[in-house]
């Protein structure tokens, strides 16, 4: 297990929180401001200036007390969101369901483990000196291959950034779990999965239209002329035919 240098942690924490806060500011901005392509750059510059303020004057200091450091994946997703806004792509979601669902499941398992409800030591396994480097290298190769082949680029690009940051500098904490998930990202993933589920339920068609009785398709014109409901049971059709004759 090797921990990142404290200086690099402090620099990363300030810059990462600046990126996250700039993204939040852009998302919450009113409509006319949100459509401006200059807003992401201005918001990022403002948050960087605030983040580098000394001590408690910096919002990164307060957020660090509550959440420590943003994960590399959250930072990469927020940075990608700012770039999308900069290019005028207002409707792009950088946390699709294919990425949000695994994060929501993994985060739930980690928090249940931290609360002692399953007690499997998942988080401490992220410090493993044997398996974690191999896993990080394989994940980096897989993400790079997906980007080159043009598959799932919206998921692979931020993941590649997170794994490279972890592999090269061990940021943010030296634990691979902290590179890909944190409380804020987990909450974002849960909301994204719930929203996707609601959208799917709304798009599902309601098959409430009654179908005609099988086998009577040829008799439909005559039945309608006789004033008989063509959607009634077969027995009703037969009795209706007898009475009309």
Keywords:
0% strand; globular; mainly alpha; 13 helices; disordered C terminus; 245 residues
Report what the structure shows.
The chain has helices at residues 6-28, 31-34, 39-51, 59-67, 72-86, 97-114, 122-125, 131-149, 153-169, 176-180, 183-203, 220-225, 234-244. With 245 residues, it is mainly α. The protein has one domain (6-203). Helix 1 crosses helix 3 (39-51), helix 5 packs across helix 9 (153-169) and helix 8 (131-149) runs antiparallel to helix 9. It is globular and about 50 Å long.
Summarize this entry quickly.
Helix content is 67%, strand content 0%.
List the helices and strands and how they pair.
Layout: H1 6-28, H2 31-34, H3 39-51, H4 59-67, H5 72-86, H6 97-114, H7 122-125, H8 131-149, H9 153-169, H10 176-180, H11 183-203, H12 220-225, H13 234-244
Helix pairs in contact: 1-3, 1-4, 1-5, 5-9, 6-11, 8-9
First-to-last CA distance: 91 Å
Helicity level, as a percent range?
Answer: 55-70%
Rg to the nearest angstrom? 28 Å
Approximate strand percentage = under 5%
Q: Number of helical runs?
A: 13
Low-confidence stretches: 234-245
């Amino acid at each position: 297990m090797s921990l990142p240098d404290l200086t690099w942690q402090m620099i990363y924490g300030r810059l990462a929180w600046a990126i996250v806060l700039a993204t939040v500011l852009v998302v919450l901005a009113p409509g006319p401001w949100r459509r401006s392509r200059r807003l992401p750059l201005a918001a990022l510059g403002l948050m960087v200036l605030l983040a580098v303020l000394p001590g408690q004057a910096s919002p990164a200091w307060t957020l660090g007390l509550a959440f420590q450091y943003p994960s590399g994946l959250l930072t990469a997703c927020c940075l990608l969101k700012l770039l999308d806004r900069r290019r005028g792509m207002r409707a792009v979601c950088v946390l699709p369901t294919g990425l949000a669902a695994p994060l929501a499941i993994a985060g739930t398992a980690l928090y249940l483990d931290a609360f002692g409800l399953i007690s499997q030591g998942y988080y401490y396994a992220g410090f493993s000196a044997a398996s974690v480097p191999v896993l990080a290298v394989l994940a980096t190769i897989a993400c790079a291959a997906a980007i080159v082949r043009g598959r799932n680029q919206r998921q692979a690009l931020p993941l590649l950034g997170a794994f490279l940051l972890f592999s090269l500098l061990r940021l943010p904490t030296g634990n691979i779990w902290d590179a890909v998930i944190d409380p804020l990202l987990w909450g974002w993933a849960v909301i994204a999965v719930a929203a996707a589920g609601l959208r799917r339920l709304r798009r599902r068609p309601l098959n409430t239209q009654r179908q005609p009785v099988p086998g009577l398709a040829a008799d439909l014109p005559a039945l309608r002329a006789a004033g008989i409901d063509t959607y009634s049971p077969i027995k009703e059709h037969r009795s209706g035919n007898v009475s009309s004759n």
